[in-house]
Specification:
By secondary structure, the chain is of the alpha/beta class. Helix content is about 30%, strand content about 25%. The protein contains eleven helices and 25 strands. The strands form eight sheets. Strands 5-2-1-9-21-20 form a six-stranded mixed sheet, with helices on one face. It has a four-stranded parallel sheet with strand order 13-12-11-17. A hairpin with a 2-residue loop joins strand 14 and strand 15. The longest helix is centred in the first third of the chain and has 20 residues. The N and C termini lie far apart (about 60 Å). About 45% of the residues are buried.
Length: about 450
Amino acid sequence: MTEQSTHRVVIVGGGFGGLYAAKAFSRIPVEITLIDKRNFHLFQPLLYQVATGTLSPADISSPLRGILSNKNVQVLMDEVIDLDPQNQQVITRGSELSYNTLIVATGVSHHYFGNEHWKSTAPGLKTVEDALEIRRRIFLAFEAAEQETDPDKRQAFLTFVIVGAGPTGVELAGAIAELAYNTLKHDFRNIKTTEAKILLLEGMDRVLPPYPADLSAKAQQSLEKLGVTVCPSTKVTDITGDIVTTVQGDETQHIASKTILWAAGVKASEMGQVLANRTGAALDRAGRVMVEPDLSLANHSNIFVIGDLAHFAHQGERPLPGVAPVAMQQGQYVARLLKQQLKGETLPPFKYEDAGSLAVIGQNAAVADLGFIKFSGPLAWFVWIFAHIFYLIEYDNKLIVMLQWGWNYFTRNRGARLITGEATLGRATEPSNRSLPTEAKTTVQV
């Protein structure tokens, strides 16, 4: 194939959708460029374990160049900021790239429902930086409580509020409960970490709303057994400083907490709006792009949107969920479709093969809905472990995570409890009048 006739495929995003598309293209005679702001693929389903000190970031991350080094793929660390569909070009911060086929898989970010000013107080969990910031806040809260003498202010440090009881919220709540009631209970002298309060707030009437009601009930039972206080039908109306204002029915409550975590919603990445502006693509309320049955755009058959950014409403009563297996299958489908198109053939519309849903609550506690069977408890937990080990990208990650989980299982220890970044957190105690040497002074404030 000559240089002039080479079919150029540009993939935007190195998450599950983009990565699986790039890997599936390896046996197709096309020129592939994958663009991502990061130089690594992040296994997001285990990000909460970085946030709670079980795993380190490198355990769930893999360099994109390393993964694709033996593939026919060029990897560019750059950011796409615009699109010119008429001239078939993507515009990045560093260059302009031509394409014959464009695949956009840039995912989603946090959604604060018009309250973006809550972001600094209540961080969400989507990136490595988010996980490290949440880990910093969780462990600094215990450290600050150890030095706090006022009982009410100490309790604010020991109160953890998670907003949103989907899979991420449930996982975070369960992991923090295990930290407070097991891992850390012998580590401090002035506080009892078992007095910590973990509050899981959910606007719907049950945890894990997308799951069957009976599994939601079992998940809530498991959370409460761990020590989590589950608050269904509870809406957050304000977050100011370290006060969370909630409404449950006619009752308004103000909760003092130094650690507030956001797991309540997602919105599409900015590429969704770029596609809408440049191609006329329709967006849903969350900013996701409405796609055709073959995952292409209505008026641009050579532009595909996959993964969390895609609103695929051609299978079942609801759009496909924003989970990793959907993105993986969509990436592989687009690669197969293009291979057939280059031969003058086509494929049937995309169809997601649902292998089921899994959500973990804590050690020996999970729920599983495999379609033909639903179960919970230790068996679901082992299935969850197997599935996550299986889908980790690199073999060294699989081995490291498996060994780390085995060690944690028997010791209940979490070895990645590092406080990184600036070690500052609000303490309400008045400083001593005694002057400290300049090099010995520390700042402890939010």
